[in-house]
Design a protein that fits this description.
The protein has helices at 9-20, 25-37, 42-84, 88-103, 131-134, 143-151, 170-179, 217-251, 258-286, 291-302, 333-346, 380-420, 426-435, 454-466, 502-517, 532-551, 565-572, 577-595, 599-608, 613-620, 624-638, 645-660; strands spanning 107-114, 119-126, 137-138, 155-157, 183-191, 200-209, 306-309, 315-319, 350-352, 355-362, 365-372, 444-451, 472-477, 480-486, 521-529, 558-560. The protein has 666 residues and is of the alpha+beta class. The radius of gyration is 33 Å and the shape is elongated. The two termini are 14 Å apart.
């Protein structure tokens, strides 16, 4: 007999080890070359190469997640700077410093317009070494910054010196050369909104490197977020300065200016209210408030009911001006989506049908919509307050998403340990769950899901659990995603009063998860079960059900063991499947293992061919005499009655169970 072909398993284990150690991409890619050099068969080699590609995507996703956490932390630090200081110079220096830190550039700087001179000048720099560059001035339309200010759009170049899109001038080129800058990204500081929806440009924020570099869309969006903070800081500081100057002048005026004094006092009160609102909202971010806290504060400040809706139109919070909860008005989802899109496109709150709506954004992603139930027009300060509340709401929603993902990952480790070895320390597992806020003794449904889009299924499961009324925890385990879902959740339909079976819950989950990953998802359900041992047993039952669905061609569906007929009864009643298989096929399994033969495979092919030797030999790709010789050996090992109807049924069932339990046909 020929030597067995090299297995792909060692290379896959090597790949998992490298991924766990956060090895460089080159080391992951080398696994394919090693498998090819080892002579792994083409089919297995394709699996190895596919696994390498998946590992590279996972590595990239993990790095991107860590980078986003650092970026969110920096945004919170920037909000803290705005709350802690009213000094415009200090705030702008902090923003420029954070821009340089977050994007990892050699330098960052900010330019502002000079109304008297009619040009723009360098306001703040960080990482600059050239005095000539720090004193640089440029006209509207000149260079990259001039084009950003003229078009109110971000621009980036990997190599400014050779980029012909920009109007190069002698003084700009000299300053860039003196600083040694090559790659430059500039974004506008936008304030207010014109009739066409584009805000007024009050400055430009830059990040630049002294070597060629391509700035990603995420980096552009991040710099735009920092520019929005800078615009708010400049606007607030200017407004406060204007108010102070007006008060100083009016203090010297006589009684004839009483009317003007009243106007200034009103304006001062509005600015003070805006400052108070800014401090309150910033404090909410820093002390970890939620969207209901934001709604309560803004509703009280603007003296109007306020509701916050998710992208699907479902209410996240609804409060009256006195802080009490109120029923959401049931805003039409289509109307709300259209109005939120209008707000997103214009970058400002919009007034429609007696309500003010402001989109809550993270880059271009719509996170939520704020709806202020106020028929009158808002003045500029109140409108800015409402829009600032949308920014704070976005930060809180991003934080909640990050925290939820982190908590689910930590809880998922507990679930993975429970499913791996529940018998080792059930009491310890229960205590770990209690510390993490999971009562393992509480009855839950256990769902096991798999999909061809495996790399997207884990994230989709978290969105499924945290995107609505469903509560539970998910974990990736043994190539599948396992979900523990609270039985009392109305969203699952598994509540005691709902009357829905585990199979119905599995089908609903398969449909929703399939929609989220845009690919078929197969879901098997078991339970309800409570306690480490029962949950582990429920997982084993659901895993067997999933294998049965795969063999039965029911991919993309949801089911439980009770719905799989006779095969489901055998699997679901916790029968000694391995013992039955061994008792029925044991002589053939041991013979194949000792001698490297294919008697189990031959028997399966014979039954699959309806007892036809010709069709069986075609299936096995051997001569018909070989099939006859193997069947003779099977008769010697199993006895003369192996092909009698009753015995044949047992053998066929054992063959099917052997395949479902992960055995090979030889």
């Amino acid at each position: 007999m020929s030597e067995p072909s090299p297995s792909a398993a060692p290379h896959l284990r090597r790949l998992l080890g490298l991924l766990a150690d956060d090895a460089p991409a080159e080391a992951l890619g080398a696994v394919s070359s090693a498998a090819r050099a080892a002579g792994v068969p083409a089919a297995d080699l394709a699996e190895v190469e596919g696994a390498v590609a998946t590992a590279l995507r996972i590595r990239g996703a993990l790095r991107q997640h860590r980078r986003r956490e650092l970026q969110l932390t920096a945004l919170f630090d920037t909000a803290g700077d705005l709350a802690a200081s009213r000094d415009l110079d200090e705030v702008l220096k902090a923003i420029v410093r954070r821009a340089r830190m977050l994007l990892g550039t050699d330098t960052a700087y900010l330019t502002l317009p000079d109304e008297e001179a009619g040009d723009t000048y360098m306001r703040v720099t960080d990482g600059s070494v050239s005095v000539l560059f720090q004193r640089l001035r440029l006209e509207l339309g000149e260079g990259l910054g001039g084009l950003v200010a003229q078009t109110a759009s971000p621009y980036a170049t990997p190599d400014y010196r050779t980029d012909e899109r920009f109007r190069h001038t002698e003084n700009i080129n000299a300053g860039v050369l003196a600083e040694g800058l090559v790659a430059i990204l500039g974004v506008p500081l936008l304030l207010g909104s014109s009739r066409g929806g584009t805000g007024k440009v009050i400055g430009v924020l830059f990040a630049a490197d002294r070597s060629p570099r391509v700035f990603s869309p995420d980096e552009v969006a991040l710099l735009c977020s920092l520019a929005a903070h800078a615009a708010i800081a400049i606007d607030t500081a200017r407004a406060l300065a204007d108010t102070g100057a007006a008060l100083a002048e009016l203090a010297q005026a006589n009684a004839e200016l009483a009317e003007a004094n009243a106007a200034v006092r009103e304006h001062s009160a509005a600015m003070q209210r805006a400052e108070e609102a800014h401090d309150r909202l910033t404090d909410l971010v820093l002390r970890g408030g939620d969207v209901t806290d934001v709604a309560t504060s803004v509703a009280g400040l603007l003296d109007s009911p306020l509701t916050i809706h998710d992208p699907a139109g479902r209410p996240l919070a609804a409060v009256r001006p006195d802080g009490t909860a109120c029923a959401a008005d049931g805003a039409d989802a289509e109307w709300l989506a259209e109005t939120a899109e209008e707000s997103r496109a214009g970058g400002r709150a919009v007034h429609r049908d007696g309500r003010w709506i402001c989109a809550v954004l993270a880059g271009q992603e719509l996170l939520a919509s704020l709806v202020l139930h106020q028929r009158r027009r808002l003045d500029d300060s109140d409108r800015r307050l409402f829009e600032r509340a949308a920014v704070v709401t976005g930060l809180l929603l991003l934080l909640r998403r990050t925290v939820a993902e982190t908590e689910n990952r930590i809880r998922g480790e507990l679930i993975s340990d429970l499913l791996s070895d529940a018998e080792r320390d059930p009491a310890g597992l229960t205590e770990r769950g209690r510390r993490l806020g999971i009562d393992l003794d509480r009855p839950r449904l256990l769902l096991v899901a798999e999909s061809g889009a495996r790399e997207r299924l884990g994230a989709a499961a978290m969105r499924y659990l945290f995107g609505g009324d469903i509560h539970g925890v998910s974990a990736e385990h043994a190539g599948t995603v396992v979900l523990l879902v609270d039985c009392a959740d109305e969203g699952t339909g598994a509540g005691a009063g709902s009357g829905r079976s585990p199979g119905e819950v599995a089908r609903a989950a398969a449909a929703q998860l399939g929609h989220l990953v845009q690919a078929p998802v197969t879901v098997a359900a078991a339970g309800p079960a409570g306690g480490p041992r029962e949950l582990a047993a429920a997982y084993a039952e659901a895993a067997r059900c999933l294998r049965a669905m795969r063999v039965l061609g029911r991919a993309g569906e949801g089911a439980c063991v009770d719905e799989l007929g006779f095969l489901g009864v055998v699997l679901g009643n916790a029968q000694d499947v391995d013992g039955f298989v061994l008792a029925t096929l044991g002589p053939l399994l041991r013979y194949d293992e000792r001698r490297g033969t294919h008697l189990v495979r031959t028997l399966s092919a014979y039954f699959g061919a309806g007892g036809s030797l010709i069709r069986a030999k075609d299936e096995l790709h051997v001569h018909v005499n070989t099939v006859v010789q193997r069947l003779d050996r099977i008769q010697v090992l199993l006895g003369r009655d192996w092909n009698e109807p009753g015995r044949a049924l047992e053998l066929q069932l054992a063959l099917r169970l052997h395949l479902l339990s992960g055995g090979r046909e030889g």
